[in-house]
Amino acid sequence: MTQIIIRNGLVYDPLNGVNGEEIDIGVKDGRIVDPSEINVAEAINIDAKGKVVMPGGIDIHSHIAGPKVNVGRLIRPEDHYLTNIPHRLPYKRAETGLTVPNTFKIGYEYARMGYTLVAEPASPPIKTRHTHEELNAIPMIDKMTFILVDSNWIALDLIQGGEKEVLAAYLGWLLYATKGYALKIVDPGSDVAWMMKGKGIDLDEQIPGYNLTPRDIIKATGEAAQVLNLPHKVHVHCNRLGYPGNYATTLKTMGLTKDITKLSEKPVLHITHVQFTGYKGDSWTNLESGGEDIAKELNANPNVTLDLGQVIPGRPATTMTADAPFEYVLYHLTRWKWSTSDVEVESASGIVPYRYRKKNYVNTIQWTIGLEVALLSRDMWRIYLTTDHPNGGPFIDYPKVIAWLMSKKAREDFMRELSQRALRKTSLPAIDRELSLYDIAVITRAASAKLLGLEKTRGHLGLGAEADIAIYDIDPRRVDLSKQYDKVIRAFRRAYMTIKSGEIVVRNGEIVRTTYGRTIYVKPELPIDLLKDLEKMISAKFKQYYSISLNNFIIGEHELKKGVEVALKTHLR
Ligand SMILES: [Zn+2]
């Protein structure tokens, strides 16, 4: 296989404590090796002088595949008219779509930005076969999917019955059956409430038909994730997302970590796209940012992690979520297009196109929340850069977010275009902090690898790591990153070079080779006796609840283009 040696680059590798040092990096057989192991005469020599070298980017939350993504494409032809790029043989298939790109464009754009692994964060179990079909069709990157369990009737029955072991075993079985990587909870219990009563519910409200609250679901699922020893613990989209005043629910949900028994050193709950659940005030007219309060709680609570869900004013978005009741509300605010569906006994979804406007009061408040949370957080290892693509904006705008985080001037210049009335109500204009390139490497790759439990082989450039590498054409010794932020945007938008599993796939910002990455999933080991009883129970429940048979539900390994199984030793006996 290809041997590569990267010389003279300024390396940012936070998992190994490397902060902008000139270090040579060797690549052989898809792994990082000591440069002395490289046969220089045979190797591709890359001179990275005056360039930044980082591990490949890792996106922990981006809606790139599955039934709702595809419906998003179907209901938005206008998203595709102006963005079509015809195929360019031999490397590239046609690219189309801005907020909901086609599968090819998703892979190419991530690779062009130096990203090498992306997590699709919300797949309803019964529709996960579709999710994998689409993940199979996305080139360039490695991927994984999180499985929705927030309103799953079998899980709710077990939670209500207090059957903790069986619940853990069921969720472990479910992850393997769907080839998922982690458990996702969206607006827990709300899809049951939506179906029965046509509305969502808050953390401590009773779920119709059950003697349970959303709090019980988060706690029980959190405990199950500990027992299963999942590499990424529970991924939570809080109740009341999108409603004024919801920051209080988010703070309470973050506080739930103390009620979950920890069986590992890692944080217990991940609160996702916190911007959408960071609203203070009791109506849209007096909305304020809850960013400061959330950052304060994050700083005080080491057992929780957050991604931003940054919104991008001036850009169209397609909101899509399993939080169907919220999309119903959003549709009535926008009155344009709306798609909704109920997913058997598991979940639901809604899709509504949206545009974040620069002069809009609410959209300006939303813009400040993500940035406030990031800039007021003391621990960059528990913060992750996302736009909740395509909900807050398209993932191709990450370089803009990087500039806002690294440059006060970038923020000030942009603020001139926003609602001044809104800005007077936030603390962002007074924040001077500017993140460093090291911080950016943390929140876009090193911490992301750690959050997903992949830090041994991903998100770093130490010996033995997967050779996923991004080289950016920017020299922090010559460019004032704080002032010349346009150069930062340009560098991160189009990587000088992206290396995926040891092969050069992007040169000078363009795709030069198409590869298909792997799909990573977990297989929790379940004790045989427990598994037998469990299969009996699941089989009976399937007959009672589902429209399809159990055999048709289970996704085979052969259905994944390149599956990688992560075997887990659980605490189940
Ligand atoms: Zn999301």
What's the layout of helices and strands?
Blueprint: E1 3-7, E2 10-13, E3 18-22, E4 25-28, E5 31-33, E6 44-47, E7 52-55, E8 57-59, H1 67-74, H2 103-112, E9 115-123, H3 128-137, E10 142-148, H4 153-160, H5 164-178, E11 182-186, H6 190-197, H7 214-228, E12 234-237, H8 247-255, E13 269-271, E14 279-280, E15 288-289, H9 291-300, E16 304-307, E17 316-321, H10 324-334, E18 339-343, E19 347-355, H11 361-376, E20 383-384, H12 398-406, H13 408-415, H14 420-423, H15 437-451, E21 469-472, H16 485-493, E22 497-500, E23 503-507, E24 510-511, E25 519-524, H17 528-545, H18 550-553, E26 563-568
Parallel strand pairs: 1-6, 2-7, 8-9, 9-10, 10-11, 11-12, 12-13, 13-16, 16-20, 25-26
Antiparallel strand pairs: 1-4, 2-3, 4-5, 7-21, 14-15, 17-19, 18-19, 21-22, 22-23, 23-24
Brief overview:
The protein has 18 helices and 26 strands. The longest helix is centred in the last third of the chain and has 18 residues, at about 530-545.
Describe this structure in words.
The protein has 573 residues and is an alpha/beta fold. The strands form 6 sheets. An 8-stranded parallel beta sheet has the order 8-9-10-11-12-13-16-20. A hairpin with a 2-residue loop joins strand 23 and strand 24 (510-511). The chain starts with a strand and ends in a 5-residue tail after the last strand. The model has no long low-confidence stretch (mean pLDDT 96). Zinc ion binds next to strand 9. Zinc ion (ZN) binds next to strand 9.
